[in-house]
Amino acid sequence: MAERREQVPQPPTPGFYLRHRSRGFAAHVNATGSHLRSLRELTAKVLADLGVDADAVDTAQLVVSELVGNAVRACGDHVPVVVEVYAASFGVAVNVHDPDPHTLPRRRGVPLDHATAESGRGLALLDLLTPDWHVIRSSIGKQVRCRVACPVSAAREPR
Which helix (H) or strand (E) holds 138? Predict the structure, then answer.
């Protein structure tokens, strides 16, 4: 486990606590721009080390960005979130937990390419990238769970 910690960068900043897992990580962060950049880099590094294909890595990074961004829009800057990313038998799991159980993501009826759509494209994008995403409420808020499909053989044990 100590070897794994040396391979994965962890920003030396307050508000970013990283828990390593054998096939991914859980990061407890206060959502800021720099923390989101670190989460995206961490997602790419961890998944690449596991042998996940590049398209699935890119998709996971995009999903992390969208879900953390939604949490900030719902709860405000510096909201505490828990971001989990890990390889599983179906591909990659991306889960984001925030403290607001009342502001649930909802799909809008506007197509992605509609000229009047000024916002709200993120959830439609999630529908395209991770069609079985869902939300569960918890005792401390809500968690959005996404599955990024990739070949099972592509995910291997960390190097």
Answer: strand 134-138
**Cα–Cα distance for residue pair 48/42, rounded to 1 Å:** 10
Q: Is 101 exposed, middle or buried (0-12, 13-18, 19+ CB in 10 A)?
A: middle
- Is 85 within 8 Å of 60 (Cβ atoms)? yes
Span 17-74, pLDDT tens digits:
999 998 999 999 999 999 999 999 999 999 999 999 999 999 999 999 999 998 998 8
Q: How do strand 91-98 and strand 134-138 relate by DSSP bridges?
A: unpaired
Q: Copy the structure tokens of residue 69.
A: 């961004």
Helix (H) and strand (E) counts in the chain: 4, 6
Asked whether the predicted pLDDT for residue 113 surpasses 60, the reply is no
Could you tell me the pTM of the whole model? 0.82
Cα 81 versus chain centre, distance: 10
The per-residue pLDDT for 106 is 61
DSSP symbols for 26-55 = EEEEE--HHHHHHHHHHHHHHHHHTT--HH
Best CA proximity match to 122, nearest among 72, 62, 32: 62
